[in-house]
Amino acid sequence: MVASPDTSPESSDEELVTRTVTFGAGADTHVVATSPTTSFGSSPTLEVDRAPESEAYLRFYIEPFTGTVTTARLRVFAVDGSADGPTVYDPPGVRSWNELTTWNNRPDWGGYWGVVSAGAVASGTWMELDVSDMSISQGSYVDVFLRADGTDGMTLASSEHPDPALRPQLVLTLESASDHPPPRPAPLTVSGAPVSFAPSADTFVSEDAPGSAEGGSARALRVGSSPGREAHLRFSVTGLTETVQRAVLRLRVAADGTEGGPSVFGTQGTWSESAMTWSTRPARVGGTLDRAPFLAPYGFVEYDVTNQVRGNGDVTFGLYGNSGDEVAFHSREAADLEPRLFVWAGASRSEPGDDCMTRQEVIATSVPPLHDTYATPETPSTTYHREASLRVDGAPRAEGFLDFDVQLGAQPVRRVLLRLYALDASANGPQVFSAQSFDEATTDWAHRPVVSGSALANLGAVARDSWVEIDVTDVVTTSGRHAFALVPDSADGLRFASAEASERGIIDAAPQLVVVKDAAPRCSYRGTKPSGTTAWVRQSTAVEAERSHHTAPAPGGGFVVLSHQEQTRDAPVSAEWTDVITLHRADGSVVWTRAFTQAQVSFTRVAVTAQGHVLAAGSYAGTPDLGTGALPQGTGMFVLELTASGAVEWTRGYTAWFQRADERLDNPMQVLDLATDAQGGAVLVGTFWGYTDFGAGPVYSGKPFPYDDTYPNSYVLKLDGQGGYQWAKLLLADTLRGTQATSVAVDAAGQVTVGGWAGRATDFGVGPDARIGPFVARWDASGAHRWVRVIPVYFSSLRALTVMPDGGVAFIGDFGGRFDFAGQSYASREPDEYDGGPRDTMLGRLSATGADVVLRTFRELTFQDLIVDAQGHLVTTQAGGGSLLGLGDVGPLESEAPYRPTVASFTDALETRWVRVFDPLQSNLLLTSQPGGILFTGDLVGAFEVDGVWYTPTSRRSDVLHLLLRP
């Protein structure tokens, strides 16, 4: 079992809130065929039978509540039972009854829409039926129809029954996790087997005996804060031939457990087991590697220490107390109970030497559970498969069960891992067993799966909000159903997130069975070497998770990167992020980094001027100060310049608004792209609503403010090297979908070329244009119109463009429909569908005067970025589809490993030069032209292998990865 790090406070308080709410019937009645004009709304009982025929109706009003309904149970007391109880029906829209209803005017519902049948019900007992499949929402009525399945009828207590405790109930289980922290990242899926290391030295030191070195020979390592006691361990890691992907420190707890477990840190400094004292102990370095607050006597705990174990050599750890509740761990003097360090390295790989760079990718496939539930003897006939958690406890007893349908395929399996997300902490988690396959809907305590064999794992101490991982490779050896039981090993119970939690949007941390295997060897490259081969790789190493957003080249070599770093560890993506701008040299080393932590500011684009300064632009709200004073009050967009050393030189802010008779509305503005000219000026394109003033007086977008299904219009703004206004163009359409300028480039002559999507009546400089579709337009350095090309296909987009060495333009986009280009007709897969059908992708070229040159279309792939390299070749990125580019099969099969990062190079005639496919990276794949090749940037969130070397993200989260590919 491997647990992921925990930095939570010392508490096992529940943050997934589960509660039940009971609603009584506001109205109920039954009708009888033999009394066709009699109403029974005031009767103390309800009759359901086939002889004489009778049926019952119940209505519940659902008052407002907080949370998500995971289970709904109808509870009705059986005054007179039946060997074959009734069926619950939920006919949609049938509400035409009240307590005065008779057989003759009963609802006409046809007897369809069955929900659940009761089976045998004993007299004097509650009939409880799972009606979770009914539509139940707060502030509304729920009607339940009961009809008998046979002639052995039932008499049920009604809402008029003299004993209020026996009246009908609708019991809802409500679950919410609004205060629950977002799930931590799952453990990295490692490809190699673990190697175990025993400590070469361990000891503990005491603050109250600062000169004592007796801990070096002790059989127990003691840790606490009052008095201060620290444990220190050293391991000699040897024999690793691949990059470390994970490392786990396992310690056995002695007789003294704790509810305030220690934290693990890396340490620095030399020390001797026989001579270390409190006064000579090494210093701890960095942040907390891991922590588990609750530790049971004679149990064990596993700490994720991957960030401290980076390869062969000595590695040292310190355990530091968080509580006066001291804990003891067995030392290396305790023989079989000694500490162990488990290290997983990547699967053995070497740099491919053949022409097509044959690789065998390690593929991890996550299989969701087919069924998962828990059962408890407290309610032996109740099922819990709809709840958001799997409860496991010894008192009161509860056992959890999971069932997976696994298809292993023909390739060899490396590992099979069961992953569970712990919602609570436990000093002694459950044991894991193989079990009989089951159906969750019928699994209660009396019908729970049979457990077989010995325990596959004992989870030991489990931290709250952490993933636990159990290696089940030895039992999942064939395709088919594989079930597991979670059996309590103590009365210190806990809950794991269920599949239902994810399906209902409560907590996205469903159980997984991860199958790790080798794909069949496949070519990862097509072309002529050395083009497309790797010159170097660079990885960011910030402790905080970091994600790339935009890159741009620096004149003469080097590049700038705009990235986002999390402000709080493990924060959700929706939380505020720090915008970071980093200038790199041509070899990938860092010149400087500048972080912007201002709230309500979002950087979107960067560029480097001919003078080596960095331009950056984005959106804001409020009055943030980005370095030279507050921006204008409101919502809008900004542009700033950083000097060659990273200092803010100037900032400009522009707001958008709309003035109503009684109020002024702040409107959003976007910056979608940014370019620079030879004089260091900035050219921006984006969208806005209402009015704005770029420097020559207020201008109107043609769209007052965001509403319904409308989309904004666009601007093109040209500033000089000091941020002063030069000129602006408004690209305004009179259609609901406004004109969107998405990409801009400036050539050596200062001409501005813009691409995007044009709505009807857009004026590019020569009057309204009736055509609708992707466009490329050019203005000279002074803003005078040169030319425009609109491809008239409505369902389409233009994603990016670049200027060729001859002044022509290349562009990428997609379309659904028909159009002509360079004298040839093009049609997508289903061009006559009402929405254009599935989109096809296009790569095209225009001449320096805007004339059609050449176009290629592709199916089932989408280009993400486009540049022209220093040699004048076009380069694209896309997710998957490498085999569709015309050079033959490349990369793993899309059916087993879809959307692999792909880089392709094309001639100026759009003929494919080379294609290369990589291991998975997250985010859009960014390209930057460099004198020595093509910079390829993505986000590293898992194990990534290139040319025989493995890379893994810091803290198992996200790093920015750069690869320089030869042109």
Automatic annotation (TrEMBL):
Residues 20-173, 195-343, 365-503 form the Carbohydrate-binding module family domain. It holds the Pfam family CBM96. The keyword Transport does not apply. It is found in: Secreted. Residues 205-225 are annotated as: Disordered. The keyword Secreted applies. One of its GO terms (cellular component) is extracellular region. It comes from the Bacteria. Keywords: Secreted, Signal. This is Carbohydrate-binding module family 96 domain-containing protein. It comes from Myxococcus fulvus.
